[in-house]
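For concreteness, we quote verbatim a single protein encoded this way:
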Amino acid sequence: MPDPISWAFSWPYLLSAAVAGYLLGSIPFGLLLTRLAGFGDVRRIGSGNIGATNVLRTGNKPLAVATLLLDGGKGAAAFLLAGLWGPDTALAAGLAAVLGHLFPVWLRFRGGKGVATTIGTLLAAAWPLGLATCTVWLLVAATTRYSSLAALLSLAAAPLLAWWIIGDLQLVEFAAILAVLVWLRHGDNIRRLLRGEEAKIGRRRSKSV
């Protein structure tokens, strides 16, 4: 249990970091960029998701890359900025940024799958861990062409990689919490993967699937 006096001193910083991280994470870059580029509402095509994989289904690769970088960047920025006040505020802001992407208040709490934002947060928390997680994602995606499977396996591996590479229990727990959140948001993808109906990277898929 934390000391009551230190907790009384630190909780405003933790709360502020969490609120700021959530608001930053909730910015729907995929939706904003596709609208600015004249593609309309990205939620009306493909999987209906606001992330980079679905933005790629517009056929505009630079737009998908920009979405990927911005979604990852907001997680990293939340973690690094809050880290100026200490590691606990960094973790609070990083977790809140992922929650903001998953459940943005601006979109009635129906956001993206959180993969890019999670990996961006892990890169900021410990770049070797983030890089290793990215490597697993790339290997699985290149082998199977399934973005969702790559996300599931890479983030499932993240806590193990955190323990193996960093050896910090708090970071292992942090990676595990983020992995659980992302897995929960991939329920539909898991069912489609089991049925053999999941769309592969770069392939258009009807909204009804």
Q: What stands out?
A: DSSP finds ten helices and no strands in the chain.
